Amino acid sequence: MVEIDEDGRLDVRRFDFYVGICIHYDGKKTLTSVSGFREGVSYEWMLNFMKGFLRCRGNVVDHKVLGKIILLQGDWSKDVQNLLVNHHHAERDQVYVTELYNRIDMSG
After folding, report:
1. I want to staple 72 with a disulfide (CB 3.0 to 4.6 A). Which of 28, 49, 58, 79 is the partner?
2. Tens digit of pLDDT for each residue in 27-60?
3. What is the pTM of this model?
4. Mind giving me the DSSP string for 26-92?
């Protein structure tokens, strides 16, 4: 669902938030980080919501650069994207998935 304004340009101000899902590979382990929820959404509540549906482990980390993020063990990118869209926490256009293949310190 892309909206075009009167001048034929893409309306990028359509959403007030975007959810970012990033997959981190460090050789042995895979982590999925989720961030960018709209204001007022509790990250702890969202973590429990995701863990309940996905049956995985995870925690909320207050990262010094990225802010609050949810870390899930394993590659849950497509499942988290579908979960957020199907339960009306975000539209498909608001969720983007990226991958990082290098080792990243997610300890905060």
Report:
1. 58
2. 788 999 998 888 888 999 999 999 999 999 999 9
3. 0.76
4. -SS-EEEEEE-PPTT--HHHHHHHHHHHH---EEEEEETTTEEEEEEES--HHHHHHHHHHTTSS-G
